[in-house]
Amino acid sequence: MKPFIVCEHADFGYENQDAVIDLSITIEPGDYLCIVGANGSGKSTLVKGLLGLLEPTAGTLTVAGQLRKGGIGYLPQQTAAQRDFPAAVQEVVISGTLSRRGNRPFYSLKEKRLAEQSMERMGITQLRAKCYRELSGGQQQRVLIARALCATEQMLILDEPVTGLDPSAILEFYRLVRELNRRDGITVVMVSHDVRGVVREADKILHMQQRALFFGPTADYVQSEAGKMFLGEGIPEGGR
Amino acid sequence: MAMMREMLSYPFLVRALLGGVLVSLCAALLGVSLVLKRYSMIGDGLSHVSFGALSVAVAVGWQPLAVSVPVVTLAAFLLLRLTESSKIKSDAAIAMISASALAVGIAVTSLTTGMTTDVSSYMFGSILAMSRQDVRLMAVLSVVVLCLFVFCYNKIFAITFDENFAKATGIRVGLYNSLIAALTAITIVLGMRMMGAMLISSLVIFPALTAMRMFKSFRGVVVCSGILSAVCFVIGIAASYRLSTPAGASVVLVNLAAYSLFTLASWLCAWKHK
Lengths: 240, 274
Known about the structure:
By secondary structure, chain A is an alpha/beta fold. Chain A contains 11 helices and 9 strands. In chain A, β1 and β2 (17-27) form a beta hairpin.
């Protein structure tokens, strides 16, 4: 099968400062890739590049044809403004279908059904009329995944999804994502701070520090120089 | 009822009511998006810029609207940029811009014509300020705003709720943000002469905040704040007619009362559910 995304010696950045330098990665269908790295290592910039919001300043980024037509579901970092936003769960979820819709002003029956299905998949149908701001952090993330699923069946990009969740919600969240990846074959790209959690979940790791320090299977990452250092830092005294 | 009929027999009051209802409706709809995106201060900043522009126009002898609409629209884009770039502390920048604009307005006025009733009415509003042409402009404006909210409702929701996701799904976020900023600017310029530069921003902020106390869906908040704003305006004008209080201040006070009422009601609801 053709790879979804091929990145060859690509630089990404703003104005005259590149946050990502000389990056070469390949994302295959069905991958579960985690992007780790310290703050300011270019993770979010790379995500913008993958989503097509930033053009590479050098090198090439090739996105497979079927992804280009709104085939990527995106779960952005939560903003402070969202936490007290008056929106029903249903309204949030259905807004994910916007990319499929072009310029028609109203939602059709098909889109409503799609929203129903994704809510069912995420187990939040009973919350549909609830207000987004009254949900717990874990429930909010489920709503946002349901929204992303309305946009795609192929690839999800998750930007720092577990930040601010409590430990049990984090485990639950990982279980959900794994299920989407294994059972439904959805390609997952996740940016995360939670290195220890991520090495237990993902199949591939990209460790960034502007350049790629490591890119490859998780098993190799744990043995690698970069992985040992980062994981060593990541495990506090008395950690699991 | 008798009072209403009496009020409607004055042509200037009919104009004020009609124009005011339209402006309140626009301000409330745009306000929902601005308040939720944490841009409430933009409304306040714009009203001060608008005051500055109007005073300068009056001093020089130009047509006030022809000067202030472009100036304030430009200021709206500027303020939006400021808020979007995280480098500058936007609240401080807005405070600075509004004070400067106010100062320019006052200085220019006192140097030329002195504090005429015109300028004072820009400050605190005057119900007599509505001309037939103003009402016509307001009608056009409200048609544009209503169309935007009916036909682009889903996109506005997506942009307000989550700008990054909206961008990723291919919505032209910048275009819609600029459109909302420009429409807000025009709403403020048109409404300012009746409500007053000091008070017009309340029309943008109050209805959205009030509606958010009771409604939990975006649709509910949008619809409620539009209706609420229009109702509050009519009650405010009636009160101002009856008690001979300034129109702008009366409308703001009615809005405050509505906010208190909704807050109380939401507490009661929460208490009952316990």
